[in-house]
């Protein structure tokens, strides 16, 4: 386990589900904290997935909005530490920013093709059927913007 990973939320065990059309890719990624690997295709919403890296300046800018959304408890959240050679710094970043939800590591850019990741940050909104309702590419610029996306794409008022 990465030093300091015990400060992060553990990844939950997820029941196996069949992949859905326009859903998350059938890829398993290791938990950045404690817990089992997460198979993305098993996940259902309402879910907000944020693709980030500790070396990404805009990711640091939007982190407070994600931390605030995580406190609302109306949506499930998952972070994906993307293309990050320093997992120990990723753990420190997530802990320092109060990103209290589970995170997985994608050092090999396994999600790049499926989510068309040009680079972090990227935020995906997954509905209750497991389909990707919307992908926001680039930095979230305000709490209001993030809350509005959750409301518009997932039908939930944070």
From TrEMBL:
InterPro entries: AhpC/TSA (IPR000866), Thioredoxin-like_sf (IPR036249), Thioredoxin_CS (IPR017937), Thioredoxin_domain (IPR013766), Thioredoxin_ResA/DsbE_sf (IPR050553). Residues 18-155 form the Thioredoxin domain. It is found in: Cell envelope. Coiled coil: none annotated. Gene3D superfamilies: Glutaredoxin (3.40.30.10). Pfam families: AhpC-TSA. Its main location: other. Keywords: Cytochrome c-type biogenesis, Disulfide bond, Redox-active center, Signal-anchor, Transmembrane. This is Thioredoxin domain-containing protein. It comes from Kribbella hippodromi.
């Amino acid at each position: 386990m990465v030093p300091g990973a015990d400060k992060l939320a553990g990844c939950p065990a997820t029941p196996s589900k069949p992949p859905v059309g326009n859903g998350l890719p059938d890829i398993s990624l290791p938990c950045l904290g404690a817990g089992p690997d997460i198979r993305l295709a098993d996940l259902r919403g309402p879910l907000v997935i944020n693709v980030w890296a500790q070396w990404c300046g805009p990711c640091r800018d939007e982190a407070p909005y994600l931390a605030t959304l995580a406190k609302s408890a109306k949506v499930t959240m998952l972070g994906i530490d993307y293309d990050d050679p320093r997992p120990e710094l990723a753990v420190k970043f997530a802990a320092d920013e109060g990103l209290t939800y589970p995170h997985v590591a994608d050092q090999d850019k396994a999600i790049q093709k499926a989510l068309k990741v040009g680079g972090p940050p990227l935020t995906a909104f997954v509905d209750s059927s497991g389909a990707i309702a919307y992908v926001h590419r680039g930095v979230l610029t305000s709490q209001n913007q993030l809350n509005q996306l959750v409301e518009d794409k997932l039908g939930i008022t944070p």
